[in-house]
Design goal:
Radius of gyration: 16 Å
Distance between the termini: 20 Å
Shape: globular
CATH class: Mainly Beta
Strand content: 35-45%
Number of helices: 1
Order of helices and strands: HEEEEEEEEEEE
Number of domains: 1
Length: 167
Amino acid sequence: MNGWKTEHLSLRSAWKKTGPLNDPKQFSAIQPTILVHTPKRLQILCRSQQGIITEVWSEDAGITWSKMTSTSLPNPNAGIDVTKLRDSRFLLVYNPISHGRTKLALAISNDGKKWHSVQVLEDSSGEFSYPAIIQANDELVHITYTWKRNRIKHVIIDPSLIEGFEN
């Protein structure tokens, strides 16, 4: 845990305000989640009104950013969140459909570019939205999200049991 705090504090102190990362005529993107690949290599994923998740990259700790592009991940302009697991893989929680919020799932990636579906958390009528994800000190992953607009649901996953994609 101490290494995580140190890495993020050093990044935060180096950040400065930049101009917009997206051209709103191309992507109407909001609510970024940041993937820290290395102290200098950063990736931002955003929800968008274009039915997909968008991304931008920085190779200099956020001083400059690439042009925003679309990923292969569908998304109905709904909140997303990512955590970097202790084994260095990234675990994404999102609505993997272009319209509606009736499905909520997990995808995993080694590099933030190629994502592999690993588990469906919800797939029924109702809305499942605004997810948050963390990995606790005991290695378990905790996910919370709005469940059918009436409650907050909490799911616990053991990332060592995620099959089909190893680091």
